[in-house]
Design brief:
The structure is a single chain. This protein is α/β, with parallel strands linked by helices and about 425 residues long. It has 2 domains: about 260 residues, BirA Bifunctional Protein, domain 2 (2-Layer Sandwich); about 90 residues, 3-Layer(aba) Sandwich (Rossmann fold). The strands form 3 sheets. An 8-stranded mixed sheet has the order 1-4-5-10-9-8-6-7, sandwiched between helices. α12 links the parallel β11 and β12. α1 packs antiparallel against α5, α2 packs across α4 and α5 runs parallel beside α9. The longest helix has 20 residues. About 40% of the residues are buried. It binds adenosine monophosphate. The site of adenosine monophosphate has 16 residues, from β5, β9, β10 and α11.
Length: about 425
């Protein structure tokens, strides 16, 4: 084993695996555009305070999982690698005065996130998310639109069996009373709380409902439910989200213990799971409303909602669902080879002509014999070999269809057109 390795909890995505990610990214970008979300890019690191306030001090992500960058002696700012995208996007919304744009501002981002988590399958220290945010719309229609958008991503990616879990976590009007009741309930059972949960009872009691500690199962099941404590406005909002989902034909299950335990998260909360995998703390994605967040990051009170879907877990779920459906890195359409191993200038020149015509072409730049050059082209699943020989002097080349095993002579001037036509016939399933 070489001593230089990728850091623990990170992975190299080699070309075939990268192709699986690229496929998901292109589905995400395409869907974002179809739903009216425009792309945004924010830095991979942010001022620590943006993430600490934007994600919440009393969360696992901030308490235990932040990658903090070692400060330089001449810098006053301290930075952290972003663990999620919402805080950075909301920071950008406030910083650039996006509240003066037509509302809502709907943006989408695909990129790497960083959490110092204990690495295991589906849990990495660098992972990729597709993040979608609609800032400036109080809902409820946009809540339903986003839930539908996330579900459509999984369907288009090829995962049909994804469940939506849905809840409302109330707002500043109704949640404090509920949290007080919940705190009282858990406090009465404090002796049964594991250490971590006992500590959370002080800082963020809602998070106890999230606990996957088996010792908590029975306590959580009997705990008071936020759904029974929603104020009129929150109950009406939740009902309206569900009316919209029903009308769209989006199936969901109300999960009373689904929470996002911070003051500025409000009302709608949702998660996506592979059917039957709800117990494993491995959501494929999740999101929710954050009507207080813009204000926390220095803007005017502005409602917002967003979600983040994990690409890594989607790739894993796809491989589990159908191990034969492997995505491979794209092969070149053609490889330019030659009878004279030394004639690399000719091969580069012809490849250059084809590349200028926007065709994906590899030129054989080694000095091996023609037979070896052709073997290599077949191995990389190229469709054609363009074989250069003496006839190049008359402006002609041989075009070998490596899939069909046929070969013919083609004028150099017609080569790009021939390749393009043959390729599109092949894609349409006709014999060439
Ligand atoms: P969260 O912001 O925690 O709700 O995460 C949203 C989604 O990001 C999750 O449902 C996962 O798909 C993905 N995700 C979060 N943390 C990790 C991680 N450590 N490794 C891989 N994927 C993750």
């Amino acid at each position: 084993m070489p001593s230089a390795r990728a850091p623990r909890g990170t992975r190299d995505l080699l070309p075939d695996e990268r192709a699986a990610f690229a496929r998901l990214e292109s589905i995400a970008r395409d869907l974002a555009a179809r739903y009216g979300y425009r792309e945004i890019e924010t830095p991979i690191f942010e001022q620590a305070g943006v993430i600490e306030r934007g994600v919440g001090e009393a969360t696992d992500v901030v308490e235990k999982e932040l990658f903090r960058l070692a400060p330089r002696s001449d810098e006053r700012e301290t930075w952290v690698l972003r663990p999620e995208a919402t805080a950075g996007i909301v920071r950008a919304y406030v910083q650039h005065g996006l509240q003066t744009w037509p509302q809502p501002v709907k943006v989408s981002l695909v990129g790497p996130m960083f959490r110092y988590d204990r690495p295991q399958a589906g849990r990495y220290r660098q992972f990729w998310q597709w993040d979608v945010e609609a800032i400036g719309d109080p809902g409820p229609a946009v809540d339903a639109e986003q839930i539908d958008l996330g579900l459509r991503f999984y369907h288009e990616a090829g995962l049909a069996d994804v469940d939506v879990l849905l809840n409302s976590i109330g707002d500043g009007a109704c949640r404090p009373d509920y949290v007080a009741e919940l705190t009282g309930y858990f406090a009465r059972h404090e002796a049964r709380l594991p250490d971590l949960e006992a500590a959370r009872l002080q800082t963020n009691p809602l998070r106890l409902l999230d606990s996957k500690d088996p010792a908590m199962g029975a306590l959580i099941a009997a705990a008071p439910r936020i759904g029974d404590h929603l104020c009129g406005a929150c109950a009406a909002h939740f009902a309206a989200v569900r009316v919209h989902l029903d009308a769209l034909g989006v199936r969901y299950r109300v999960e009373p213990t689904l929470v996002r335990g911070l003051d500025y998260y409000t009302r709608t909360a949702f998660e996506y799971y592979r059917r039957g995998a709800e117990g494993q703390q491995q959501a494929l994605g999740g999101g929710g409303r954050y009507d207080g967040l813009v204000e926390v990051l220095g803007g005017r009170p502005t409602p917002g909602i967003g979600f983040a879907l994990g690409l890594d877990r989607t790739v894993l779920a796809l491989a589990e669902a159908d191990p034969s459906a492997v995505v491979a890195a794209p092969a070149p359409l053609a490889v330019v080879v030659g009878a004279d191993p030394a004639a690399t200038v000719d091969r580069l020149r012809v490849a250059g002509l084809l590349r200028a015509e926007r065709l994906a072409v590899r030129a054989e730049l080694g000095q091996r014999k023609l037979g070896r050059q052709l073997e290599a082209a077949s191995r990389e699943r190229a469709h054609f070999a363009v074989i250069l020989g003496d006839e190049l002097a008359d402006g002609q080349v041989r075009l070998k269809d490596l899939l069909a095993g046929t070969q013919r002579t083609v004028a150099l001037a017609d080569l790009a057109g021939e390749l393009r036509r043959a390729d599109s016939r092949h894609r349409h399933g006709e014999a060439v």
